[in-house]
Amino acid sequence: MRVYVALVGALLLLDVAFSLEEGCLAGRGQKSFPSPETTMKECLLYSNASCCFANFTEELVSPVTKVEHTKWDICQQLSDRCETYMKRVECFYQCSPQAFHWMNPDYTAGFLHVPLCVSFCDSWFDACKDDLTCAKSWLTDFKWENDSNHCQHDCVTFSKMYTNGTDLCQSMWGSSFLASSSEGHCLQIDDQDDMVLPHILCPSSRSRSTTSSQEKPCHQSSLSLDEISPDQENWDSVFVTSLYAIARELATWTHLQMALQIMLGASHQG
Ligand SMILES: *[C@@H]1O[C@H](CO)[C@@H](O)[C@H](O)[C@H]1NC(C)=O
Ligand SMILES: *[C@@H]1O[C@H](CO)[C@@H](O)[C@H](O)[C@H]1NC(C)=O
Ligand SMILES: *[C@@H]1O[C@H](CO)[C@@H](O)[C@H](O)[C@H]1NC(C)=O
Ligand SMILES: *[C@@H]1O[C@H](CO)[C@@H](O)[C@H](O)[C@H]1NC(C)=O
């Protein structure tokens, strides 16, 4: 009997651990939980645990013209080099299971202040410097009409629109990203991110005074249900977040049932 109680406990613990680790942003086309995708055309970095469906990545096959409702070729087709960086950022947003850790409390389909390495921002800027754009923030500076974005200003080069890589990272997608020069505590949007992530979420206190009782708490998902005030226009998000909570309860319940069945099976045998 003790074994089965332990098993129930283990399953519940597993579920708690699972709930701390996994999740996806509450975007319209995204999953509730990451899962493998075997037929992705792009964003293969996330194929083992993807928040986007494989069919989404068809939009990201070169030459990219439109992603969801946003035309990327609004001034002219992006250069291959620039497109590669834009894709990496888009894949992170749509498909990465890591993005969930920075879910924006005011807009659960997006994230807030994901720390990108300054070196990544500078490479992105360098790759796009001669490409054209007419909006500094691609979230707020376009005119939206007929289900797509339109220019409100002249097309200029990225190097004229943005001062440098830091400015590009911190402006193009609003406050989604921060440019971080904290080596080993920032993302490059590549296969090293999985290794770096624990250091960002739970920075080691080794280099600091180990006796400190005021250690910096680990970064946690900035979302908490009671922070979403219902008078905001994002009822959509509240709804999705509630569904998400229910799904989580169901997952727990499934584990419980599994455990109960094992216990019952054992008592029948005995
Ligand atoms: C997916 O998982 C397999 C097996 O663990 C591993 O060999 C592979 O490198 C992973 N792929 C990615 C893109 O992380
Ligand atoms: C992509 O696939 C998912 C799941 O298979 C489906 O729910 C969704 O409607 C598909 N989206 C498009 C645009 O085909
Ligand atoms: C939107 O579509 C309407 C009707 O087809 C057209 O008259 C209008 O110019 C379009 N707006 C833009 C910004 O293209
Ligand atoms: C980047 O540009 C910003 C202004 O947008 C400026 O404050 C910052 O010092 C610049 N960074 C570098 C490294 O030149």
UniProtKB/TrEMBL annotation:
Residues of the Folate receptor-like domain: 24-188
Pfam families: Folate_rec
Top-level taxon in the UniProt lineage: Eukaryota
Protein's UniProt keywords contain Acetylation: no
UniProt entry keywords in alphabetical sequence: Disulfide bond, Signal
GO CC terms: external side of plasma membrane
Segments for region (Disordered): 205-224
GO molecular function term, any single one: signaling receptor activity
Signal peptide stretch: 1-19
Keyword Transferase part of the UniProt annotation: no
PANTHER family in the record: FOLATE RECEPTOR (PTHR10517), RETBINDIN (PTHR10517:SF19)
Family: Belongs to the folate receptor family.
Protein name: Folate receptor-like domain-containing protein
